[in-house]
Amino acid sequence: MRIRLLTTAVLLLGATLVAPSTAQARDLQIFQTESVANGPVSRQEMLLRTASWIRDKVPYSQDNSTPHVNEFGSYRRDCSGYLSMAWHLSSSLSTATLPSVMHQITYDDLQPGDALLRRSGGVNHTGMFIRWEDTARTKPIIREEYQTGRIAEERPWSNSYLKTFTPYRYNKVVGATPSPVSSIGQDVTGRLMRFEATADGAVQLSEQTGPASTSWQVGTIDPPGGVVPGVAVATAADSIGRAYYFARTPNNKLRVGWENSPGSGPWLSATIEPTTDLESIETVQPVGRPTAVIDARGKLTYFVRTSDGRLFHGWQDQPGSATWHATIIRDSAGQAVQLDGDPMVSQDVLGRVAFLARTSDGKLLYGRQAAPGTGPWVVSTLAATGIVGNPSVGLDVSGKLVYFARGTDGKLQHGWQSTPGADTWQSTVVPATTDTDGVETVQLAGDPVVSLDNSGKLTYFVRTTDNRILHGWQDMPGSDPWHATIIRDAASNQAAPAAVDPALSTDSAGKLVVLLQSTWLYQHAPGTGPWHLGAISG
């Protein structure tokens, strides 16, 4: 794959240009997903991190000199090292020191990513709660490293064994992560960043002045004429924590830009030639909006629909590398998949990159890697029909992939994997009817976005035909029924205006954040309203 580096870099906020070290980028294997060490971490990320040790078949050991090293860091191979890795701590704590970063909760309050700890009545031990095996909530499913001669695994505990443990919650857990395929990301310092293609074809960056700040600074990081105006820009973090953006160019290529170092500019950019180099050599014409996600091996990957409805997929040669490879995604019969909408991508609970996209007959095409970080692709068509626009995809607290999509009837379709990581799906229609602050049925006009809130409930946001925002959430984490309201500004009690589809993220304090064109909304406190409306300005 050819990549042409631009000879200029756009300086952001007075930074000076320092040439990136390609050798350093090539050698670094540790990457950040959405969290930073000792910072807030989502339940979704905890599930992905712990799944990596089960994938790697990590054997138990208390030897500090032989830690397990993978894309999520270097940690001791025992129970507390496993939990330290899951919570993205800066080092491997012990069962004696873990209480310094967590607080006690009740059994009834256990959610995926919480801990069970025993420090009396036998050998000290800890494991991570995943879900309940039974509806009576007596037998938990736990991920753990627990005994010499065993490997990291997920297994059920009996109720009698459970009662010898005390439940705890990490002090900095957050329920939400940026909606996959979003134009919003969080840098390594915890600041939110939003990338936009302006009317004159420049890339504009709006970023918080500090973590969880209510003030923003705005600047141009790629000059006018470089990208297609008005087409959404995708963002993701690379293997060394640098923020990247992906956009389409006016001459049918892809523009990629990145921070010179994690959390700071200047910004560098390059043009990616849309040419395959895996099975054969072919140059394609990208259309629509690109999407990006990091894979289980720490490589950035991108996806974009082509002019003839195929799915073009590219990835870094090595984590942090400036060399890219690409292919056309094919099904098990060797046929190129055909799309009518843009792909939405995410990692599943097993670390496999997965995509959902609308087909020409209004159905959803689902595809996933055969194994974490590698093809071929397993592709199938879901039962949902009458889909318009693009779906939103994410993970629920149990680790199931979920989607929300608008139907031709203006209603909201919701689907989920039958079990975490499964290729079988179930679906329903979520009524677009408010039951908080009045009862009203609305018609939907935009593409929905989805995430978890601070409590672990799935939440969605979608624009209505009269340019308001319908916001819905589960009654309990992982459980129906659904509640909904129209978002209002706390100061005026007026519905927040939304002329464009919302973009969704969470700030470093765990509050959900909705970004519109030149305004934004944020929760009053993590997991709860009222909502505050503000301007995004430099």
UniProtKB/TrEMBL annotation:
InterPro entries: PLL-like_beta-prop. SUPFAM superfamilies: Fucose-specific lectin. Residues 179-485 form the PLL-like beta propeller domain. It comes from the Bacteria. This is PLL-like beta propeller domain-containing protein. It holds the Pfam family DUF8189. Residues 1-25 form the signal peptide. Keywords: Signal.
